[in-house]
Design a protein that fits this description.
By secondary structure, the protein is of the alpha/beta class. It has helices at 2-35, 45-51, 57-64, 78-83, 96-102, 112-124, 141-150, 169-190, 196-222, 227-235, 242-256, 281-288, 316-330, 340-352, 367-383, 399-412; strands at residues 68-71, 87-90, 133-137, 157-160, 267-272, 292-296, 355-363, 386-392. A 4-stranded parallel β-sheet has the order 2-1-3-4. Strand 7, helix 15 (367-383) and strand 8 form a beta-alpha-beta unit. The N and C termini lie far apart (68 Å).
Amino acid sequence: MAETLLASDERARRRLARMKGKAAGEYGQAAARLRERADFVDAYDYFLRLAEEPFSAAALRERVDAPLAGLFCLQAPLEIFLALGLHPVRLCAGSQIAQQAAAASLPVLMCPMLKSFVGHTLLYENAFRTFQTVVLPTTCDWVVKIPEIMGEDLSALHYMELPHYKDTEKARTVWCDEVFSLVAALEEKTGRKLTASALRGAVATMMETWALWGALLDLRRSGVLPGIWYLLLANTFMLDRLDVWVENLRRVLNALADRPAAPFSAGIFMAGSPIVFPNFKMLEIIEQAGMAPIADDLCTSERIFPGGVAFGDTSRDGLLRALAERYHTACICPTFIDNDRRVNNIFLAAETSPIRGVIYHLLKGCHPYDIEAITVERQLRESGLKFIKIETDYGREDSQNIATRLEAFRQTLS
């Protein structure tokens, strides 16, 4: 019996080794396609090198020379982690091969992004123990249950209870308490105290980052920065030391400073489920269908950057309250009950940019976005804005069918 188990373990190791090689090829091929584009500029290469290397917590920890804080979703204020000497990084994955590595032990209809993340932990040893801490806001059920699915030690994690009403005083108070509880937990884990001066420094650093990102956003809206490159830059956020990453953003801005806007006849707003490199399938097909994604509300793209923080009280507690308010009110996660801001953001983008229609990207198994698509579609159609929902997964088998549907949608925008 023992010999059989050992043989089985050896077969499993060989299988994972083969899939690890295939996953590396998947990343490399996606990066190669981007490098071959006519709109490639040398300033993008830094971000491509970050993206084409499958995520390794150990490698990132060495690169940034700091302990890591793994984050699911966007609600926990990044400034808190930076002020306590932690390097925050979003835990997600876009590899179809990694997804296949874990598929046999996971529910069939599980979110592809999280299924791919679980596969990454098998292929690249990114288990939660390689992070100083892992923070999980209670957004969708998959996020809440993923440590249990992975067999992780729950005592090593920190959950943040997300109130599902947002625009109420009770919800704001609850979330503010959660942020203060997060600080207490991080202070215990790091052995450091969060000071007002450290928090002010972190806020200033992020304000500078948001300002640069706002300049890039303007270039995207005008067609100077194609949407596929914008998402690549966003996907690499916190995959290096923040100061190095920011300096390379400046290089992109300088490289694009004198470039004319690329002509496009059909500007598109992308909504719905996250898009993670190397799974840029939807972006590629949208472009091939003659449309340009010039705006989005994806949590792996424009929603990463909530913008500046307004505060009058510069004390530690005053800054924490301001950060809690900013991250909470800026979030348009579909798990909120009162979420009119999501549709209002689309209307605002359509009023201020040449947007002709909305493509709603839905990952199979992404239940919150699937449910919310009903409301979003109804309100957009009532306003006269064109809408199409594309349900897909990480595979490319449906690419031709999606292309046919998007080409037909493009004709309705004329």
